[in-house]
Write a structure and sequence with these properties.
Strands 7, 8, 9, 10, 11 and 12 form a six-stranded antiparallel β-sheet that branches. It is built from seven helices and 13 strands. It is of the alpha/beta class. The C terminus is likely disordered. It folds into two domains: 92 residues, Alpha-Beta Barrel (TIM Barrel), CATH 3.20.20.80; 143 residues, Chitinase A, domain 3, CATH 3.10.50.
Length: 271
């Protein structure tokens, strides 16, 4: 679609009609992921034409301009293929950084933090590394939205006596691909008397019972990430996805954390 002017226009026009017919505030593009220089160039062209089209539509209809956002790789380069950062910055109101899926049974033979804010080795993927990369590439912090998961990944340990990060595994556990929602994780912990561990360096959680090991984000990890986003001056945060929450427990916690951080900022400025 993005490689052809005619199909780009068809997509753009139909997306605007869809948004307006449903009373949406805007549109969010999720391309996972442009993986070559040509695709990145097409991505930038699509964003610029999309922005021009929503501006023209708003002008011709006297309606508020639709907001535009995109979900992007956690870093400004996709395995050395650079995003068109200038087009991203000038075309989108914000970008949603998918700072998760760093480790999973489908592509990791060892356990690992699926959504680490910080890397234990200072070399692996992390949310902070991604935020810094995008800002250094030229995207303002105020256009960045930090993403975190309301799900985790479960592995089958090779050795039940080695239940830590980077432990050897024999594949996925609990579900075919190992994915498991936060509500299901809480139930697993209760039903199996699982041991839970919070790692403050990584800002991530894991639990284990027997040979079943799950990496995920619990309340403390999520709240810490929200505070990080606020302290870094980011636009906000998002989660994927709210339906996997446990009776909205995580959602309520992050909302309170964001509001509390705002209140603290106001007080400090006032006095």
């Amino acid at each position: 679609m993005a490689s052809n002017p005619t199909s780009r226009k068809s997509f753009i026009d139909s997306s605007i009609r869809l948004a307006r017919s449903n009373g949406f505030h805007g549109l969010d593009l999720d391309w996972e992921y442009p993986s070559s220089a040509t695709e990145m160039n097409n991505f930038g062209t699509l964003l610029r034409e999309w922005r021009s089209a929503v501006a023209a539509e708003a002008s011709s209809t006297s309606r508020p301009r639709l907001l535009l956002a995109a979900a992007v790789f956690y870093s400004s380069d996709y395995y050395s293929v650079l995003y068109p950062v200038q087009a991203v910055a000038s075309s989108l109101d914000w970008v949603n950084l998918m700072a998760y899926d760093f480790y999973g049974p489908g592509w990791s033979t060892v356990t690992g933090p699926p959504a680490a804010l910080n890397s234990l080795s200072n070399a692996g993927p992390s949310g902070d590394a991604g935020v810094r990369a995008w800002i250094q590439a030229g995207l303002p912090a105020t256009q960045l939205v930090l993403g975190f998961p309301y799900y985790g990944y479960a592995w089958r340990l090779s050795n039940a006596n080695s239940p830590s990060y980077y432990a050897a595994t024999t594949g996925s556990a609990i579900s075919p691909d190992g994915s498991i929602g936060y509500g299901q994780i809480r139930k697993f912990i209760v039903d199996n008397g699982a041991t839970t561990v919070y790692n403050s360096t990584v800002v991530g959680d894991y639990c284990y019972a027997g040979t079943s090991w799950i990496g995920y984000d619990d309340n403390q990890s999520i709240v810490t990430k929200v505070r990080y986003a606020k302290q870094k001056g980011l636009r906000g945060y998002f989660s994927w996805h709210v339906g996997a929450d446990d009776n909205s427990g995580l959602s309520r916690s992050v909302s309170r954390a964001w509001d509390a951080t705002v209140a603290t900022t106001v007080i400090r400025r006032k006095f």
